[in-house]
Design brief:
mainly alpha, 85% helix
Length: 241
């Protein structure tokens, strides 16, 4: 409703226009003529306009003794008009009261509907708050599970890094041993060659000694002559073993 339409001037003009058109000014008809407005706002202004209208009363009529019967008929007509006006005003007041009462009932109904909507909104809000708390708890659980998974993965990764480092070091040692094999084989071959040479020399020395012993006739002279050679042979045999 446009409350700017509900002024005394607008209400009075609408009521007078209805009256001139032969209609009875009431709260409903005035609101319809204004195109909007609240019954509670229109009613006191309409009553103010009605109270400002001149009312024909029997006591206001001046009686002319010279026109007795004519005045009496006029008084009767004025009284009848006053009665009709009073009845009309009473009917208008009753209609206005009914309009205000209906507006009050509509307002009460609207207020009741708003109260029900408010209760529903509160219940929905509480339900959503409970759901939100549940979602928060679920989010905390997911966060804790994710944290545990990350810690487990980090520990596993650390163990794998340590295992990889151990394997790498073992590979390095294996590579070092592998790289040393040719050198060791070369050294073994050299030692084998030296051993073979020494064994050949030893065999030759033994053969020479044996030949010398067979040529020398005296054992004492043989021991004295070949004692040093014999010691040398023993020394060479010990080193070759």
């Amino acid at each position: 409703m446009n409350t700017r339409l509900v002024t005394y001037e607008n209400v009075a003009a609408a009521a007078q226009g209805l009256l001139d058109a032969g209609q009875r000014p009431s709260v409903r008809t005035v609101i319809a003529a204004l195109g909007g407005g609240s019954p509670n706002a229109v009613l006191p202004l309409l009553n103010e306009w009605k109270a400002s209208r001149p009312v024909v009363q029997g006591a206001d009529i001046a009686i002319d003794p010279q026109i007795g019967q004519l005045i009496a008929r006029q008084i009767g007509a004025a009284v009848a008009d006053a009665v009709r006006s009073a009845e009309q005003r009473s009917s208008e007041v009753q209609a206005d009261a009914e309009a205000v009462a209906e507006a009050g009932r509509e307002a009460e109904k609207t207020a009741q509907g708003l109260a029900e909507e408010l209760d529903q909104a509160k219940a929905k809000l509480q339900q959503q708050a409970g759901q939100l708390e549940e979602r928060v708890r679920e989010l905390d659980d997911v966060r804790q599970a994710a944290k545990l998974s990350v810690e487990t993965a980090e520990a596993k990764a650390e163990r794998e890094r340590e295992a990889a480092e151990s394997v790498r070091q073992e590979l390095v040692r294996t590579q070092i041993r592998t790289e040393a094999i040719p050198r060791l084989e070369s050294e073994i071959d050299a030692l084998a060659s030296r051993l073979q040479k020494v064994e050949g020399e030893l065999a030759a020395a033994r053969q020479a000694l044996w030949n010398s012993l067979r040529v020398c006739p005296r054992p004492r002279n043989r021991r004295k002559r070949f004692g040093r050679i014999w010691q040398l042979l023993k020394s060479v045999s010990a080193h070759s073993c």
